Amino acid sequence: MPAISWFAAVGVLLALVAWDLTAAGRDRPLRRCALIIAAQLLVAVLFGAALLSTSGADVAARFFAGWGTSLASTVDLLVVLLSVAAGTPEWGRVIAVVVVVGVLARGTMAFGEPGTLVVGSTSVLLGAAVLWGAWQAFRREGSPPRAASAHLVLGTGVLAAAVLGLMSASAAHAVTGSGPLALVAGVLALVGFQHVFGLVRGLLARMPDAPVGLAVVLVFIGVKSVLAGLAGTGPVHDAQVVLLTLGVLAAVAALGAITAARAPRERERS
């Protein structure tokens, strides 16, 4: 694709991200959020189809690989933020700042790759921090929830967005072999993030054991990051790992939904 086409694509995606963030902090029906998310996923399919028709199957396949890599990192970021920011009154502002940092981080590294030592050590530190957060969540099980400091929530979100964004862009660049392609894939993976956060946040509010479920997913993310870092790479986000991550999330969500459905019946019996 010509350079002007890449600039146009990035501009459109940034406009979609900005539009998504204008809804930050507003309460929206879950059905509407789900429809918007589906529509934004359709954008990825249409962009891939456009690449297929203009640049061939190889470029389209590399785009989808880069998008999947970036999307897996976005899922990790979503889980981290849900564990710290879901109960924050000003969560909309936090998400807006986090998304902006994520876009900048992915744009910075889309055209290059850091050294193996940097990626590996950063991945280990990220995994250790996530595991520590999961341990704290398990320790607080059954205790009254404590509101986290707004500055702590914002700082945690910004740090996670920066680290995951850098590693995601590096991995996407390695997969796609193209800076512009990695940039488009990375930004596209953040489109609709605020709506996804709002949707999942609303669903978790209906589940009594949601903190425990999030802690389980945090353990998975932390172990994945530590092992990948010790191997000298960042978090692995190939197709198998993406499917495994989504499978873990689906299993935890299903268990949470079952628990939430059974809770009223158990209260009636007692």
TrEMBL record:
<feature type="transmembrane region" description="Helical">
    <location>
        <begin position="64"/>
        <end position="84"/>
    </location>
</feature>
<keyword id="KW-0472">Membrane</keyword>
<feature type="transmembrane region" description="Helical">
    <location>
        <begin position="181"/>
        <end position="200"/>
    </location>
</feature>
<feature type="transmembrane region" description="Helical">
    <location>
        <begin position="212"/>
        <end position="233"/>
    </location>
</feature>
<feature type="transmembrane region" description="Helical">
    <location>
        <begin position="117"/>
        <end position="138"/>
    </location>
</feature>
<feature type="transmembrane region" description="Helical">
    <location>
        <begin position="150"/>
        <end position="175"/>
    </location>
</feature>
<keyword id="KW-0812">Transmembrane</keyword>
<feature type="transmembrane region" description="Helical">
    <location>
        <begin position="34"/>
        <end position="52"/>
    </location>
</feature>
<feature type="transmembrane region" description="Helical">
    <location>
        <begin position="91"/>
        <end position="111"/>
    </location>
</feature>
<keyword id="KW-1133">Transmembrane helix</keyword>
<protein>
    <recommendedName>
        <fullName>Tellurium resistance protein TerC</fullName>
    </recommendedName>
</protein>
<feature type="transmembrane region" description="Helical">
    <location>
        <begin position="239"/>
        <end position="261"/>
    </location>
</feature>
<feature type="transmembrane region" description="Helical">
    <location>
        <begin position="6"/>
        <end position="22"/>
    </location>
</feature>
